[in-house]
Each structure stands twice: as structure tokens, then as C-alpha cells.
Amino acid sequence: MQTIIGGASAGAPADVIKDTDTAHFMADVIEASRDQPVIVDFWAPWCGPCKQLTPIIEKVVLAAKGKVRLVKMNIDENPELAQQMRIQSIPAVYAFVGGRPVDGFMGALPESQIRQFVDNLLRAGGDDETRQIDEALVQAAEQLKTGDVRMAGGIYTQVLQADPSRTEALGGLAQVYVRMGDLEKAREVLAHAPDEVQNDPHLVQARTAIDLAEKAAGAGETAELEAKLDADPDDHATRMELAMALYADGDAKAAIDQLLTIVRRDRDWNEGAARTQLFEIFEALGPKDPVAQSGRRKLTSILFA
């Protein structure tokens, strides 16, 4: 398929991470940020959270392969600048673009949030490859929604080759394999995710989709299940199985409608199994999916009628 993301980035330059002081702050941060985003990590040797945070920032910055720089400043050795920057507690992290601070945070954050911080900074700094990746992810999601799973898979693969840390692409590629019926391959894709991002929403959504696909695979034929329901409309077990069969056929809306019917007739049936199944489908579809949004509204209306 056509390459939609620029060629592989060069390795990170040797000075992508450096220490600075008050005398060199203007050159290392202000002037340097006119060419590319610069993150400043204010720390001190006695600060325990600093020792936890700094290696994480270094890891994420190195993974960006020179698209962003990290400058570290010891506030004990440079108290005047820390006062000018109004640093009241550490760790304190500021991001500079175009010679001015554009974002920042205080305290230790997990790696997933640091990556998001850097991604946002690269967008603010006008990084071309980051923009291309963002556009590619939107295109892949559209292809997946319209059913062109092979095209979506190709785009997600390109994104991961350019930036392996993009959990949206990792989860999306797993979803592609779910749609293709290869659940083993979908699990294999997710197994490559580092432990610290296992709770990322994109990966949780993909895992839920895998679980649902496994359940749906055991459902019967829709025609037979519909015939059983015609004979006994209050057979909730059959209606639940029909919902999963419809979901397996790719008709999430019809599956949701069947589950809503169970909740409407007996919301506590089988310890609220229909509601639980609805939430799993909503999770698998994602918060922005219009079918899921409509289903959530209908469920709320039933529960609070």
C-alpha cells in the first residue's frame, strides 16, 4: 500500500538530553525551542519523586528520536532561575515552543501521561510526522468503521513502524484482527504493549472486543433463535444469545436493541446480565461511536424511567 507517513526518523542526536544552568538557560531552552520543542525538568538531588520521574521523561524523549529535547536543571545549584520561573515544588516540568512556555505539570506522572504530554507538545510545535500520524489514525479509524479492515490494518501497521508507542494504533490493529476473525493474532498484538499502558483505553477497548467476539462465536443461528423468541418472547436466555449472534454478524445496533428489550422487561434478570453485556458492547464500540451513544441514552431512559 502507499506510504502515508514520512520515512523512518533518524536516531536521536547526542545532545537530545542535557543538563543546563542559569548561564546557559537562554541558549539551551529559549533559543533552542525556536527550532524544536524543549522540555525542562526542574529537579534536586534530595527529591524522591524527581528520581522516579526523570528516567521516564528521558525514556519518552529518546523514543521521540530527536523531535523533542530534554533539558534538566538542578534548582539547588540554580536558585535564582527557579525563583524567576516561580518553581514552588518539584518535580516541575515545563515545555517550551517558539521561545515561550506552552505547557507544564508538577509531580510524578506515569509513563502513559508523559507520552501524551510529549505528543501534545509535538503537535503544538508543528511536528510534521506527528501531524501525519494523527491524520493516518483518523483515516484508519474511518476505514475500520466502513469495513475496509485490510486498509485499516495497513495504516495502523505504518503508524506503529513510525511510532511504536501509539496505543491507538496498537488497539486499532488488534481490532482489525478481531474483525478478520483471528482472535489469536489480536491477542498477540496486545501482548506487545508494555505493562505501563495495559490500562490505556484503546487497549481496554480492544480486549473487550476480543472477549465479545469469543462469546459471539458460540451463539446459534439468528433465524433459529428468532423463531424460538416468536414462540416465547419472554425467553431472555434466547434473546441474549440472539443479541450475541447479531453482534457476531456485525449488527451491533440490533444486538443492543435485543439487550435493551431484556432490561426493559426484567432489568435484574440473571443478576443484570443484559446490562453487563450492554456495557461490554459500548466499551468495544468506543465512546464516540454513534450506535453506542444512542444505546447508552436508551439504557439511561429505561433505568431512570
UniProtKB/TrEMBL annotation:
The organism encoding this protein is Tistrella arctica
NCBIfam families the UniProt entry points to: thioredoxin (TIGR01068)
Extract the PANTHER family matched here.
GEO12009P1
The text of the family note is:
Belongs to the thioredoxin family.
Name all Thioredoxin domain ranges: 8-123
Family matches, as Pfam families:
Thioredoxin (PF00085), TPR_19 (PF14559), TPR_20 (PF14561)
Gene symbol here is trxA
Q: Please give the superkingdom of this protein's source.
A: Bacteria
What does the UniProt keyword field contain? Disulfide bond, Electron transport, Redox-active center, Transport
- InterPro entries on file: Thioredoxin, Thioredoxin-like_sf, Thioredoxin_CS, Thioredoxin_domain, TPR-like_helical_dom_sf
Q: What is this protein called?
A: Thioredoxin
